[in-house]
Fold these 4 entries.
Entry 1:
Amino acid sequence: MAAPTARQQDEAASARPPGGVNLGTLFGVRIHVDYSLFVIAALVTMNLGGAVFPAWHPDWSTPLRWIVAALAAVLFFASVLAHELAHALVGRRVGVPMSGITLFMFGGMAHMEREPERPRAEFLMAAVGPLTSVLIGVVSAVAGAALAGEQFTRAGSEMGAARVAGPLATLLLWLGPVNIFLGLFNLVPGFPLDGGRMLRALVWWITGDYRKATSVATFAGQAVAMVLIACGLAMTFGIRVPGLGSGPAQGLWLVLIGWFLNTAARTSQRQTVVLSALEGVSIDRLMQRGLDAVDASTPLSELVFKRLLPSRQRCYPVVRGDQLEGLVCAQDVRKVPEISWEATPVSAVMTPIASLGALGLHDSGAEALRKLGQHSVDQLPVYDDDGRLAGLIHREDLMRYLALSADRGSSGGAPRLDDRGLGRQS
């Protein structure tokens, strides 16, 4: 059974956007916006247009306040995009493939197809994001101060000048400190913040143990998350936290950020345990061989009653002649009502081969897991050295190996494999 090349399959898969809006590509990096970002952008706009700018500039007209507020929200998330794009471009430069960038309610995320292989690459990738944010902040603040002119000199600070400056200067003087704070916050040494990745790179470089370095950075990330949650809870009860203020809204937001960081840190630790356990085993030892195939024109009724029910095989290669066209699995049958099974060919419900990643017999279990997550599927075809289908590797095959393997980390059991999208740079 002949198959498309790995490049054709991966290009087809990478063209499918995840949930949200696809903004296209920038410098060869795919950009997506999660729907949650629009909610946060609306909240930022409402806060600026309905509270901050009326207090700073009571003489501004209502349309002017809302226009400047909307522009501020757009420029802020453009700054976040620049932060993530810096991660992606430097990542590519140091040999880490990037599948795209997603902007969402907590900021942004650059998706790595695999983790860096050297401490230096990790450190450079992590450091460039905060540096970009600080640079944007400094340039914005300086430009705003220059536009404010004498008003900035009399006010003595960015926020003071913003209260008396014109619309453009106000916008820049607000954007500058926000980006500087974003950059400095990301330098906090707790995973998955950029500072946490820098910490992991340093521990990795000193000890030579990637797994230990991840544990240290993860512990630091969870500690930072607990501090944020504690501060947020205190603020919701009216306690003023130095440098953070007080109030239920700000406190709740801090609790949400802490919860997100804690969850991300725990997930990263679990993924590291999983990938370490799978790195040393090739998938030719784990996959299912000797598969029966079905013709693309086979009715679903025949697939169900003559293949799926009598056999333990749950997924079938779909062929047309000697050409492999896709995979059809038991769950695909549910897409069609039983009354229509007789008239529906398997080709109507199969997953096309172009939507699946290509794996070779000698690829590792870790690589299989990465591609299962990248393509959001539960099984992938495996090809031999001549490009012929050799079998299938299932997520369950990897789980079974982990359950039996002695190298299971400190969790006391096999790590879970239900997390998609391994490798993310926040």
Entry 2:
Amino acid sequence: MNLREKVDHLDRDDPLRSFKDKFCHTGDEIYLDGNSLGKQPLQTKQIINSILNEQWGEKLVRSWNDSWLELPKRISAKIGSLLNARPNEIFIGESTSVNLYKLAYSLVTSGNFPRRLLTDSMNFPTDNYILEGIVKQLNLESLVFISYKTDLEAELTTLKEAIEKKPGVICLSLVSYKSAYYYPMKELNFFAKTHNSVIIWDLSHAVGAVDVDFKKTNTFAAVGCTYKYLNGGPGSPSFMYIDQSLIPLLSSPIQGWFGHINPFDFESKYSPSLGIEKFAAGTPQILSLAAVEAGLDITLEAGLKQIRQKSEKLGTFLMQFIRDELVPLGFKIESPENPERRGSHITISHNESWRICQCLQNPNNGQPKIIPDFRPNRFIRLGFASLYTTYNDLLKTIERLKEIVMDREFLLHDRSRPKVT
């Protein structure tokens, strides 16, 4: 059996192979950017058309009572089912940044933890912008910024020492956006709790790709987006998780009308909801919220355990070929070797990373179009989504990368970059 036959065999034996048919695809394009924006589920069009034509188009405002007011609760319950949380511990709406602001602000001002915010050099930059803003707003001591020798793998001893010396509210990305390093969630939650601290986990590069269980990991607070591995669509709303033991102790810094205990009484005085709904602010974004449900249902049907198992297998398969075929050509592996400490993308780098990405996306001579993503100043991220990425996709990508470098095809492109890469 030759290599191509082996890869065909792996795809035929894939227990999730049928899920690829639930998504929209473009010709023979190989899409390895699901870690930035997931593919569109076929069911999404039907859901949105129903809202446009029947609910908004015909029923208009009556649709709020008929279905729209219940939509956030239904989506929250499904996210809770996915991540092992109670429905009343999940809020969905607004952006990840807004939800992180509300959650971090409420925790650091709650009186239950030291008034201190911590983060590390592997956290998503936008998260750190939010934390820096809260530090200035509340006149806290400067943001505790934990640095490692590289930004590719956390040094747990350094992280724990920082928490021990300066306890407080910590924000970490469960899966690092650069290297896909996957933090030991349960271990760090336990350590934080024993040192009078709490971790807010940003699940944006993790949810729908790794098997997250809030209760088994003793997680108390988290935020995450829905447009990556949950395939909710561009700008789809994010979610917030708060363990029910903390909810009564927290107050939202944004007192919006949907956070009121009786929003449609239009009272002059603000009275917050008693549950996690107190963190709601503006009117739910019905169109984008509804689009989340299709991708979420597919993920629930496939199951996070199966999704994670395939992700680890795809990653191991890809890592081996990178090591054997690409490293000798000047590529460098920027992700953890251990699949248990890696999310669902592998990052590589090369002196010509940007121009190599241009070759992948703009092929010559009938080669497949391959869509990775580039992160400054040298990273090529290859994101594999278990619901639709195949072993053949990864093999063809390796073959194409070899060809681009060996033929010096990257010289056909300049180094200019658009705003979105």
Entry 3:
Amino acid sequence: MPEITRDVQMVQIAYQCDECGEGLMIRKDNVMFTIDPPQFPHKCNKCGFEAILTSSYPAMGYRQIIKSPGI
């Protein structure tokens, strides 16, 4: 199969605090619990709420850029 290319944009993925709803969860001390799935301790940068999450935040991701036809 031939390769294809697409235009993408890099985006930051953040996790909003479940407790205060205003702050963002930030990974604590670069710690990872090696269980299946791995878990990461986080702390809210506004209220200090702590939680264990199965992804590390903030994270980076990609979004495909969709171009409108005929423009």
Entry 4:
Amino acid sequence: MRSGLFGNVISFCAAILLFYSMAPCQTPGTVNLPSSLADQSVKIENAILSKPQKITYCEGPVVDKDGNLFFSEQMAGIVWKLTSGGNISKFLTFNNQYANGMDYAPDGNLVICEKDRITERDANGNLVKVITSGNTWGQGANDLTFSSNGDMFFTAFNQHFWFHSKDSSINRDYNFTTPSNICFNGIEYLEEKGIIYLCQWGLNKVIKCKVSTDGVVDTANKITFCTINGPDGITVDANYNVYIASNSGSTGGIYVYDSTGNQIGTILMRQDNDPSMNASNCVFG
């Protein structure tokens, strides 16, 4: 999902607390963005959940057309719903106790990375279909992105990423045999630019590849877009600035780059280098 920062909100997932800036006892984070991206008065504020919950590692934030925020509690296999009024509730619970990246397909249905499958759900969470499944996904598919016609790209925490056509007639497995610790973790396709960004968590870098009109990724001529500790979720705004969640074991946050790979800003969640407050994903709403 791409949107400008002007008048909009960026939501991000942390390991323990998410979408809320800081608990009162914690050191607040900081926002350092150029004036073209945000009013300089913007800051991270303390917030308290209206229904306090013990939520573990979170992922996959998406925002629906009504402004509701959905996110996954990864190893618990729960999808949570947070309304604009601050009410939080369980939307879905999976028996396999795993849920990760999510996105909305062009038809408006919610698509969810599960342990060994990717599913499409209606507005009530009912299963519409299993889009694809696999047994070479390591701990499971972890992020996904769509083209306008419903074709899908997705990553898993290993050496692979995939292209899956809307009609399921094509499933391309892009297998990087070396090095052995790539750990793909985050993906964003810019159809109008013909490029795709891929986070290589294990290598601390984000690569950029060209994509043909039929969805073929030119991995042979990939370039390094930026180097960043533990790149995880990724999104792009209306001006093609790139926002990357750093899940690095140090100061967690969102790092912002222009379209050429120059860092232009940061949104840090806290200042005391607590690994539990790293960022795992981000989205505009």
